[in-house]
Amino acid sequence: MFKTIKFFEGLNGLRFIAAYLVVIHHAEQIRLKYGLFNLKQFTVFNNGGIAVTFFFVLSGFLITYLLLKEETKTGDISVRNFYIRRVLRIWPLYYLLVLIGTVLLPFILEFFNYNYQMPYTFGETIGYFVFFMPFVVNILYGTHLLDPLWSIGVEEIYYLMWAPLTKFFKKYFLQLIIAIFIIKVIIMAFSYLGYFNDVARQIIGLLKFEAMAIGAFGAYYIYYTEKPIESRWFFSNAIQFAVFSFLVSKFLLQSFLIEHIPQFTILFTTPIFSELLLMAAFCWIIISVSLNPKSFVKLNNKYLDYLGDISYGIYMYHMITIFAIVLFLKNFLNGLPNSVSTILFYIIVTFFVILISAISKSIFENKFLKLKKKFERV
Fold this sequence. Notes:
This protein has 15 helices and no strands. It is mostly helical and about 375 residues long. Helix 1 (about 10-35) packs antiparallel against helix 2. The longest helix is centred in the C-terminal third of the chain and has 35 residues, at about 340-370. It is globular and about 60 Å long.
């Protein structure tokens, strides 16, 4: 029933919302770091990591759906073409940001005698960036201007193994998904129980293969289901209300609820369980928003579609953009009333992040995306 989908309506809207949650998370983090009035104490401004988890689930969902579709249509999966498509989509902007963050930006800051201490040198980290292990840089050197790149490295590692595994285990694909999920959860459990050193625990926490496996399971389910989504009980109005209430509470009210109703700690902060529950909710909302005509949430409009289309750029450019805005406007913003400063700050940040991402998509990324179409088989 869902084997010929070319475009999942509403997912671009979800992409943009997730990307913007990352933007405001880092915006408040940078305002706090540089002594500006900030809203870091409010839950909604601390959801960057959760939003990135959504991206992992979404990636597992979309990539798996496309691979299943290719296998059905052509009888095989071209691992070579898959890798080329991923390279053309991910690498150009990724390596551009690496160049900006490790070479160009430090040069500009030094040239203008700005007192900013890079937490690492080019030589110390370039190997990690080149070989898609920026998450190691985050672990070793903490938060920095290329901080968002860590998730791109995780996805690239996943992509590297997922296409060949899908090709060679296509007869046992569901079992493969379940096995990857179970293995990762077992590793997480051993990590939580203290069986690994601190660096290993952090790496295990960052390699969100369980999130991608959950997304892959969602893709497998909708690809092979023969019934309309709205006819399934777990997409009924009652379940929709429960899932959306859970997500709204998680994104907006978590701190308040835990403080005033301690029982919510079980739902929101139980090790492993709470993470998996959130990932499952993300997979559910991906399916509901894109395929359920009775979904409470409708995100299919041209503005959100466009913003979602440039969301990769929004995610990649936002940290450096926010830093530049704070660098040039810190004294000015500090001289304004807190409410005015915050509103103006977000207007400026939103405008420039979207502008830079739109320009990048138009004059840089699209050149590679046009080449990518030559290697599409479905």
